[in-house]
Amino acid sequence: MLQLKIVSPEKIIYDNEAESVLVPGSLGQFEILTGHAPIISSLTAGTIEYTTKEGHFSIAVIGGFVEVSQDQVKLCVEC
């Protein structure tokens, strides 16, 4: 299980567990699963999709950054 935190300048959008996260990286869309290698990447305009025990969710973003380390995914986004 991943610990996912999505923040924007206005608020914390999500801060809880997730099973997977799909992000619009600047070099193309990529998926983050448990055990993903550490990475820092910029994000382009697109959609962040994440799956939790409660279901599948998506957020449209203009851009931002993602950091992955030790099953923790931190997204700083502009919506």
**Strand proportion:** over 45%
Q: What is the helix/strand order?
A: EEEEEEEEE
In CATH's first tier, which class applies? Mainly Beta
Distance between the termini: 25 Å
CATH architecture: Sandwich
Task: Please state the overall shape, judged from the principal axes of the Cα atoms.
Answer: globular
- Report the CATH topology name: ATP Synthase, domain 1
How would you characterize the largest beta sheet? 5 strands, mixed
Name the CATH homologous superfamily: F0F1 ATP synthase delta/epsilon subunit, N-terminal
How much helical structure, as a percent, in the residues? Answer: under 10%
Give average pLDDT, whole number.
Answer: 97
Describe the 3D structure.
This protein is an all-beta fold and 79 residues long. The chain has one domain: F0F1 ATP synthase delta/epsilon subunit, N-terminal (ATP Synthase, domain 1). Helices cover 0% and strands 73% of the residues. It is built from no helices and nine strands. It has a five-stranded mixed β-sheet, with no helix packed on it. The model has no long low-confidence stretch (mean pLDDT 97).
Task: Produce a short descriptive summary.
With 79 residues, the protein is mainly β.
List the helices and strands and how they pair.
Layout lengths: L1 E6 L4 E7 L1 E6 L2 E6 L5 E5 L2 E7 L2 E7 L1 E7 L2 E7 L1
Parallel strand pairs: 1-9
Antiparallel strand pairs: 1-2, 3-4, 3-6, 5-8, 6-7, 8-9
For the structure shown, list the relevant keywords.
four-stranded antiparallel beta sheet; five-stranded mixed beta sheet; 9 strands; mainly beta; 73% strand; ATP Synthase, domain 1; 79 residues
